[in-house]
Amino acid sequence: MVAFPRLKKKKRRRSTLNRSGVGAPPGLLVADPEAVPSRLSVYGIGDGRFHKQVGIDLDEALALRTEWPVIWLDCSGLSDIGLVERIGAAFNLHPLALEDVVNTEQRPKCDPYQDHAFVVARMLDPTGNSEQLSVFFGEGFVLTFQERPGDAFDPVRKRIEKGAPRLHAGHSDYLAYALIDAVIDAYFPVVDRQTGRIDELEDEIFDDLDAVQVPEIHGLRRDMLNLRRVLRPTRDALNALLRLDRPFLREETKTYFGDVQDHCDQLIDLNDTYRDTAAGLIDLHMTLSAAATNEVINLLTIISTIFIPLGFLAGLWGMNFNPEISDWNMPLTQSPYGYPIALAVMTVIALGLLAYFKKKRWI
Amino acid sequence: MVAFPRLKKKKRRRSTLNRSGVGAPPGLLVADPEAVPSRLSVYGIGDGRFHKQVGIDLDEALALRTEWPVIWLDCSGLSDIGLVERIGAAFNLHPLALEDVVNTEQRPKCDPYQDHAFVVARMLDPTGNSEQLSVFFGEGFVLTFQERPGDAFDPVRKRIEKGAPRLHAGHSDYLAYALIDAVIDAYFPVVDRQTGRIDELEDEIFDDLDAVQVPEIHGLRRDMLNLRRVLRPTRDALNALLRLDRPFLREETKTYFGDVQDHCDQLIDLNDTYRDTAAGLIDLHMTLSAAATNEVINLLTIISTIFIPLGFLAGLWGMNFNPEISDWNMPLTQSPYGYPIALAVMTVIALGLLAYFKKKRWI
Amino acid sequence: MVAFPRLKKKKRRRSTLNRSGVGAPPGLLVADPEAVPSRLSVYGIGDGRFHKQVGIDLDEALALRTEWPVIWLDCSGLSDIGLVERIGAAFNLHPLALEDVVNTEQRPKCDPYQDHAFVVARMLDPTGNSEQLSVFFGEGFVLTFQERPGDAFDPVRKRIEKGAPRLHAGHSDYLAYALIDAVIDAYFPVVDRQTGRIDELEDEIFDDLDAVQVPEIHGLRRDMLNLRRVLRPTRDALNALLRLDRPFLREETKTYFGDVQDHCDQLIDLNDTYRDTAAGLIDLHMTLSAAATNEVINLLTIISTIFIPLGFLAGLWGMNFNPEISDWNMPLTQSPYGYPIALAVMTVIALGLLAYFKKKRWI
Amino acid sequence: MVAFPRLKKKKRRRSTLNRSGVGAPPGLLVADPEAVPSRLSVYGIGDGRFHKQVGIDLDEALALRTEWPVIWLDCSGLSDIGLVERIGAAFNLHPLALEDVVNTEQRPKCDPYQDHAFVVARMLDPTGNSEQLSVFFGEGFVLTFQERPGDAFDPVRKRIEKGAPRLHAGHSDYLAYALIDAVIDAYFPVVDRQTGRIDELEDEIFDDLDAVQVPEIHGLRRDMLNLRRVLRPTRDALNALLRLDRPFLREETKTYFGDVQDHCDQLIDLNDTYRDTAAGLIDLHMTLSAAATNEVINLLTIISTIFIPLGFLAGLWGMNFNPEISDWNMPLTQSPYGYPIALAVMTVIALGLLAYFKKKRWI
Amino acid sequence: MVAFPRLKKKKRRRSTLNRSGVGAPPGLLVADPEAVPSRLSVYGIGDGRFHKQVGIDLDEALALRTEWPVIWLDCSGLSDIGLVERIGAAFNLHPLALEDVVNTEQRPKCDPYQDHAFVVARMLDPTGNSEQLSVFFGEGFVLTFQERPGDAFDPVRKRIEKGAPRLHAGHSDYLAYALIDAVIDAYFPVVDRQTGRIDELEDEIFDDLDAVQVPEIHGLRRDMLNLRRVLRPTRDALNALLRLDRPFLREETKTYFGDVQDHCDQLIDLNDTYRDTAAGLIDLHMTLSAAATNEVINLLTIISTIFIPLGFLAGLWGMNFNPEISDWNMPLTQSPYGYPIALAVMTVIALGLLAYFKKKRWI
After folding, report:
1. Confidence of residue D12 (pLDDT cuts 50, 70, 90)
2. Which chains have at least 3 CB atom pairs separated by less than 8 Å from chain B?
3. How far apart are CA C19 and CA C104, in angstroms?
4. Contacts of A213 (CB under 8 A, 6+ apart)
5. Based on the domain organization, do D281 and D297 belong to the same domain?
6. Using an 8 Å Cβ cutoff, are C281 and C205 in contact?
7. For B81-140, what is each residue's pLDDT tens digit?
8. Within the 258-277 window of chain A, which residues sit less than 8 Å (CB to CB) from chain E?
9. Residue B249 domain boundaries
10. B265 lies in a domain?
11. How many domains does one find in chain E?
12. Is E292 on the interface with A (CB under 8 A)?
């Protein structure tokens, strides 16, 4: 259960939602005090060639827009509100969308605008930490905003650099698809680990029932609840994208987005099934624990029920009534065969009780 | 658990629903006997200027209507039925809507009328107390009715007074949006405290299981149930607003209302997830309590099972059969090594039982 | 728990559903053998005047139809099948609708016919007993059929007699609305009592946990389940009414029916929330009971675990091995400090066990 | 619980579903080896006259088709596959529909064909056994196939023979309605018995809690689950029928089918409510059992906690330390008032413990 | 419970979902390292004749396409990625579809393309192991891809070889139907075994309650959860197929696909009902176990409560207060009738307690 405290810590943070936005005017950008410094990187892509520049200045990046069929501008870290605003102005982004970029506890969603689409998703790293990813794409450009450096896009970068034909065909929608697909693909190892752990816990419960398993199942169930909170709106966002009718989103790319939606459905199915399984495991744990307790109580009852009456008899014959005063007192103790008779009586009682328990199937 | 009785008291009150309306003709306004005295305040807004007047007379307020592009008339306290009726007459409000204003246990909803929209919402203060907010907005005016002085609108007032351009553009729909947005924003601290408390309780359960945690979880779950009862219809009301086709509600303002709906969805998601988590915590508590009881019962069984038979043996040798009458009585007690033999027998029995428990994994 | 048996009795009766209709041809009216004698009463309404007659003959009542803009014919008690059939013939009612009038276990519903609408609702009296109300309304007439004398309509009667303008405007749809609104309004005190009792039970559980609370919660939950069985179809019926397009149902009256539907939604919300709360209370009760049992078992274990070993030792030193035969027998008992040593050993054991329990947090 | 094994046996059979169809080509009819011999009976109906013939040959029956406005051909028992195929050919039935007739584990459904409708329902007898009923109806004919002789149609037969006008009006759709209505009506006694039994069990649980009630509730809940499995698709089938647009199904008959659907809704409502109640009863049983156990454990604890320490004291004073060797040994036993002091000490301890239990509200 | 480990193993494997696809470009085919060698087999079908060839080369198979009205190309084993790609090129299949063929953890689905439909289903063998089946069908061809040799198609092969007219009519859609129908038919024995086992377990629980039944019910419930995960999307896929409007899918074949959908509905109904029943069985098991424990605890309490006080009395009279020092010490022990009096007192106490238990209905 090493992973458990970390998981809780992660959730703790997630619950401080939307704080900077409370009471502020809409569209006013306020940086999260814990935000990481912003850093721009840009790819210009087209015709098998590409230009990559990390740590670029915004104006330089915008200049590339005219030179390349598609540019991908990525902003890691959201502390520089001014930069975000300037990007917004350059690409004509809606103030509410920019506010959503900066307040990084948004639900995944897809907001259609006239000349671009805005998609919010959550990006998981292999350890299960998540950050918000905001994607804008329109004719000739894709913008991505992420909370921290480090992302799920390396496979896409490699394919750009290898000159993958579909990425170099000059359509920004396919690039946006590739990025979002990479984000969803990164969910699979996390879900795989969750479901695998539940499968293992099921074995462990049958092998060695232990109270320590309960918090872990509870923690997994909770992580899966949190994941569902992300997956369902992501699916809805992809659905909204599929129903979008804009020139910058071609029908053939929608086929690809449909494939991402299939992956989402698969994840939701697994999430649903395994959350249900986890709930079943807690019930199973409780039932098996109760069964173990019953076994213990049975033993206690059998031992007590046999020896308490016998002990009483022994106590009876241990009483100090004076046999010398009258023959009424302690008669058997003064008889020559008193002791063997007493032992015989006790044996008969014990055997009788054992037979009764046998009949009741308690032993 | 200081907060607990207060929460219950709040709910108690909420359940005395709609009382004044039972059996009364529709549209007949009856003041809640506990209603707070009414007080009007008004803002005239436009072109960067504004006029603010608190405790104004209705006729004066209505006079401002012709002078300013947008007026915002706020009525705090609903004891003055006559005032509400006169406002209704002045703005051509439907009697049923006025009835809903006065009976302050309405579900959040949006009723469209020909020349204005009527929105009912619930306003939470930071301690979680709620009051009904009724908003009417049409061409050039926004009316708000609230149960008590004290509201979530201070950020909006500040922005009006600072001359925020969108608020001064002369459109009442944007002002209505700003007010409703401020109301929904005020839910976040409340939800944040609920979810944070559940996270803490989870830690407490693992750290120090105590029966006192159960009522608190129950209370939180109940508060969240009550919140859901408000959130779901609020979302539906916003949805109805988004589908409304009226000249006084512009398409661009709908984008803003869509943002409020996103916030609602976020709150509902959190509410659903954490209610589910709270239910899981109660199960967890029960399972861990059962595990603790099992441990105690195990100890009881082990001690009893070992010492009850030994005690019986001691009792056996403590019986007062007269050894002088015959050699059958109490033979071992008269042997020189009887006592060490007895102790040895008891030790063997005790070790045997311990080995049995060890094998059964009970110790 | 005085109310409990009555509630069960009520439900028992409700389950003998539709009996008279089984196997009978559709439209054949068979009186319920327990039906109450029928009695007609009529109101002629219009232009501020009204004519009221109780215990009227059907032909007289029909004669009023030509004289008054709107007549309201109420039939209390359904034993006179012939009367129901004659009313059906006079107002051109469908045989299936008449069958539903007489078989008083119908689900609430709204059946639209060409020249009238047929609404089935259930009327609750303040003690929670229910009866079926069948309402027909068309151009110029409203018919109501109820199982028993005594109804929720007194507020409407008073308003007719006071000359309320909307009731006297000559539209039957508004009168039908007023009657149905009065029926739904009568649900509020019942729901209020249920929710109030649940709030009280929550307090009682925290104050003084008692097994007797469980059946009461169960009974309340069951009453609320039965109420939901009425509320949901009532809401659907009102919805069907709102979507109805007939000349005898004006758009402006639909606004009023929409208000009734709002009340229904409010009742359903409360019902859902409190049924959920009641289920939570049963869990809470079980958890707190288990906690109480655990406390008792803990005490039992502590006392047993301390005194059973000590008792064994006392028994050991109470054995009757003969110390005179050899020094091996009962050595300590013959030592001058044997007794204080024995007491000291016992004290050490007891303190050691107490320290162990302290460490385990059992005391 | 006499009825219980029978109910289980019934279910067992139901689960051997669709066996003959596995791996067979579609439309190939394979008789169930347990099928009952087929027997045709026919009614020719029209204009107040009717012709009834039981055990008729198919060709004779088809000959009646030209003579009578409506014929009703009923086939009881499905072992004669050839007969079913010849009927199918004569009435132009789809091979898949015939397959569904013969494989008697179909879900209730309604399949529309060009010139007839095909409805599958399940017919319950009063003891709760069910058989599949397949109904085809088109212009001038109604066909019914049932698994066994014995059905719910006797009321319809009587009405035909009495010359009921609507049945004699020459429309096959009304006859089909009358038959399906009779089938649904036959559900009411079964549901009535189930709900009545649950009401009784609730009383029994309060009167005399017994573990034997649990399996019966479980069995009832299971029967109701199975019934729901039939009711929901039956409702859907009736809904499909209501939306069907074919000349052989008149609008006015749809009103009647709507009435059957109302009955279905009523049954589903009851089924839902009582299944929920049954689940609540199991919880209630568990809670009350736990309460009873708690009471027993309380008694055990009180008795043990009082007498175990007292017994220890008695044992202490029963030890055989030799008082003659030193004054340290067993001092009180040699004092003249030792015995009354010991009794007094014990009484004080017992009273102290009783006071403690009183304070803790355990007694 | 022999079957249990196997079932778990199966699930373990299922959870390693989609692994090869993570991070890879869309449409890039990567063979599962555990994939079985690929083997083609082909049927040419038409006009009562057929040509069958197993282990054929792809080019030979494609050559048959021109000779026969319909060809069915089956590829068992998916290790040969090149072969899959060449088939994709020959039949103009979308790269994403081919990726789904190779990544064998897809959800069942139906993707429509312009000139063919793509259906993913899961094929169960009689032991409950599953493999992915990918079906493409368009004008004149059906392609099937399966993970391993061995499938559910033998009934279809036999019907082709017997010259079944509908299969030889030259329509690929009917062949696709026949194959998918065979796949769904193969679910019935698996579901039948699951439901039959639950029925048996219900009997076993009543006959001989044993903790070992709980894991088996849990395992069955889990298998049924996994089956539902397949059944629901299969139903949706069939629904999508029914709504498809393409020349290669004729209306009359849709009737047949509707029949497959009916079978799916039947399986889903059974799955839902029996999963609910299995959950009920776990509750039942817990309740009956608790009842058994209660019985044991009752016995323990009765025995303890009777004998512990009696034992205390015996101990009291066994104390060694010196009666010779004063008459206050041990008075009754020195009386001639002390012993019978003591026995009488004990008997009275025992009978009193038994009467008390009788009154409390504990014995």
Report:
1. very low
2. A, C
3. 10
4. A201, A204, A205, A285
5. no
6. yes
7. 999 999 999 999 999 999 999 988 899 999 999 999 999 999 998 887 889 999 999 999
8. 258-259, 262-263, 265-266, 269-270, 272-273, 276-277
9. 39-286
10. yes
11. 2
12. yes
